Amino acid sequence: MSALDSGTAERRRQFAEEARSERPDLALLCLLLGAEAGPVGPAEVRPVTPGEAVPDPYGIDAAQIELDRLAGLLPYGSRSPAAWASALAELLGGRCGFGGSSVDYQRLDSSLLQQVLRRRRGLPILLSVVWIEVARRAGAPVYGVALPGHFVVGLGDREHPVLADPFAGGAPLTGQDAELLVTGATGAALEPSMMTPARPLEIVLRILNNVRAWAAARPERTDVALWAVELSLLLPSHPARLRFERAQLLVQRGEFLRGAAEMEEYAEILDGIEPTTAENIRRKAHAARALLN
């Protein structure tokens, strides 16, 4: 990993520890991810007097409190999945104004939970995280559904779920609606496996992939691309090619020796699997070292 300040190193440690826990906390992982983008308010750190609130520059505690507050606004009592979906849509999509539009795809903060809670705008997957975490706190049988190209939420029976689209303010989705979303995104038919509830780490990796895609379209934001890759590498299961992506980013950022060394390490892994690819990567490492001359 890159040289990190103590605060970032501690958050990374907490992220890795939570990701490897028996039941990873989705909200905490998303908030630690969001903290990588920097403070959400004044970043000044000063001595704390007795009785004074501890500074929360990255908004992690404040966001957890907000999720608890929103959950407390839901009507109390057991209800059907359809009634849960309706109550959530009324509260989050209606009263609170959570939703999204095409403009939100152009903003990094649409992938940061702290900012989504503040702005009430975000990508489908982050808005779904808000729904999942608010509903879970209120006792609803909720889960994420990672449809290709558009993340939604499901409530109730996982064989016949009630689906809702937080990006559209919580609009209900029929099976035909879900089919149209998948066909529009992939050109293929909706498969039963696409309706499998998404696990927390799958959701976090998909968010990080979105951040990486955002940064890839902006060559000047290698800083964002690097932290997104480094967090992805902290997840228990991740594509091995991310190690090469990280090495390339280091070279782009002028860390030629470190980038070259990591390319060579990755090439060793590939030697017995894809020797031609391994040799190509060694050539890239040699070229990176030559940039020092």
Secondary structure topology:
Layout: H1 6-19, H2 26-35, H3 60-72, H4 81-95, H5 113-119, H6 124-137, E1 142-147, E2 150-155, E3 162-165, E4 171-173, H7 175-186, E5 197-198, H8 200-216, H9 222-234, H10 242-252, H11 256-270, H12 275-290
Antiparallel strand pairs: 1-2, 1-5, 2-3, 3-4
Helix pairs in contact: 1-2, 2-8, 3-6, 8-9, 9-10, 10-11, 11-12
What does this structure look like?
The chain has 293 residues and is α+β, with helices and mostly antiparallel strands. It contains 12 helices and 5 strands. It has a 5-stranded antiparallel beta sheet, with helices on both faces. β2 and β3 form a beta hairpin. α1 packs antiparallel against α2, α8 packs antiparallel against α9 and α9 packs antiparallel against α10. The longest helix has 17 residues. It is globular, with a radius of gyration of 21 Å. About 2% of the residues have low confidence.
List keywords for this structure.
single chain, 54% helix
Short summary:
The protein has 293 residues and is α+β, with helices and mostly antiparallel strands. It has twelve helices and five strands.
In terms of per-residue confidence, which ranges show pLDDT below 50 for 5 or more consecutive residues? 43-48
Helix content: 40-55%
Question: Which quaternary structure do these chains form?
Answer: single chain
Number of strands: 5
Provide the succession of SSEs. Answer: HHHHHHEEEEHEHHHHH
The profile of the biggest β sheet is: 5 strands, antiparallel
Strand content: 5-15%
Class inferred from helices and paired strands: alpha+beta
N- to C-terminal separation?
25 Å
User: Which value, in Å, is the CA radius of gyration?
Assistant: 21 Å
Strand arrangement across the biggest beta sheet: 4-3-2-1-5
The number of helical segments is: 12
Shape descriptor reads globular
Q: What is the average of the pLDDT values?
A: 92
